[in-house]
Write a structure and sequence with these properties.
- The protein is α+β, with helices and mostly antiparallel strands.
- It has a single domain (about 30-160), classed as FAS1 domain, CATH 2.30.180.
- It is about 40% helix and about 20% strand.
- It contains nine helices and seven strands; from the N terminus they run αααααβαααβαβββββ.
- A seven-stranded mixed β-sheet has the order 2-1-7-6-5-4-3.
- β6 (about 140-150) and β7 form a beta hairpin.
- The longest helix is centred in the N-terminal third of the chain and has 16 residues, at about 1-15.
- The chain is globular.
- The model is unreliable at about 1-30 (pLDDT under 50).
């Protein structure tokens, strides 16, 4: 028991003696923290439809800006679940497409921990998203399948369904 206590005290002394900046290494830093939300989406491979839609709506520059933003990002599979012709119709109507895409964006950095204390958040589009954390995390009717992908200008939460305002 005395050895365990001594080791614990020695470990605490080392932790205190090393400046916090030295404890934070490149290995613990998020690999996406230096990329914008759009750069992460474009390089991921699961968000090709989202990036195409952002480009068609003229939102790439806005979501590459300073932020911070929180994006509930539907995957390509989520877009594929839309009824036949819906995506094509949205891509042909910039106003509706912009409304749908900005409904996925909240101004500010809302992490998974923050969502646990919220019931809703107002989107850039103007309407509110509702959160339910009783069985996993749901945003309206979409399940969050991956949370807290940190970007230089905010955070991405991956969802399995396209949110329609």
């Amino acid at each position: 028991m005395r050895q365990i206590t001594t080791l614990a005290l020695a470990a605490m002394a080392l932790t205190v003696a090393i400046p916090a900046s030295a404890q934070y290494s490149a290995e613990t830093k998020s690999p996406t923290a230096d990329k914008t939300i759009v750069e992460i989406a474009a390089s991921n491979g699961s968000f090709e439809t989202l990036v195409t839609a952002l480009t068609a709506a003229g939102l790439v520059d806005a979501l590459s800006g300073e932020g911070p933003f929180t994006v509930f990002a539907p995957t390509d599979e989520a877009f594929a679940k839309l009824p036949a012709g819906t995506l094509e119709a949205l891509l042909a109507d910039k106003e509706k497409l912009t409304a749908v895409l900005t409904y996925h964006v909240v101004v500010g950095k809302v992490t998974a921990k923050d969502v646990m204390g919220l019931t809703s958040a107002t989107t850039v589009q103007g309407e509110a998203l509702t959160f339910d954390t009783s069985n996993g995390v749901m945003v309206n009717n979409a399940k969050v399948v991956k949370a807290d992908i940190m970007a230089s200008n905010g955070v991405i939460h991956v969802i399995d369904t396209v949110l329609i305002p």
